[in-house]
Design goal:
Oligomer: single chain
Number of helices: 4
CATH class: Mainly Beta
Helix content: 10-25%
């Protein structure tokens, strides 16, 4: 997805980053819709792709969905510090985000309604995500339960953003932190 990153004002750049994140939520083909979420597990750092579902509060809060039985949920509960990496090779632009995550403990029926029946199927399995099976079809649900009871919303509160544009004419990097209700930025050496 194309964004004109040729800007010199940090407030405009922060607004552009937030707009780009919001755009990614509604565009299936947008590479920023599929960031890598890094957590801390029992064996060290653990990373996986998640789907960015919603951007709230001027980009301060990012939402993703998960099966509440997935290992990442236990990792977030034990160590809430997270990092997200967004990358768009067409830019090419990288955005690294650091913050805290929490898991909504009450099933969110409103957001559950956003999912198609095929997406809901992923939450209906009696087996925990990551359970070994003999063949792929064994992972599919074999019950008539709704799956809502396993559906979780991960809320990630963004504390810092590190933006890097790998421009041919010269790389640009900016770092932002959330202070007093605004994104405060500074330019940094790429």
């Amino acid at each position: 997805m194309s964004t004109d990153w040729q800007m010199d004002a940090l407030p405009a750049l922060a607004a552009g980053i937030v707009a780009r994140l919001k755009q990614a939520c509604g565009t299936i083909a947008d590479p920023w819709r599929l960031p890598v979420l890094a957590t801390l597990g029992p064996e060290g750092p653990d990373a996986r792709v998640v789907v960015l579902r919603e951007v709230l509060n001027e980009g301060r809060e990012l939402l993703a969905f998960s099966d509440r039985r997935a290992p990442k949920i236990a990792q977030i509960r034990q160590h809430p510090r997270i990092a997200l990496v967004f990358y768009d090779g067409a830019g090419p632009v990288q955005l690294r985000v650091h913050g805290q995550a929490k898991v909504d403990e009450t099933p969110d029926a409103e957001r559950w309604a956003w999912l198609s029946d095929a997406q809901r199927q992923n939450y209906r399995s009696l087996a925990i995500p990551g359970t070994p099976v003999l063949n792929p079809s064994e992972g599919w649900a074999t019950t008539d339960r709704s799956g809502l009871e396993e559906f979780a919303v991960i809320r990630m509160t963004v504390e810092t953003m590190d933006w890097l544009w790998l421009a041919r004419a010269g790389h640009r990097r900016a770092q932002f932190s959330w202070e007093a209700g605004n994104w405060c930025g500074r330019w940094a050496v790429p």
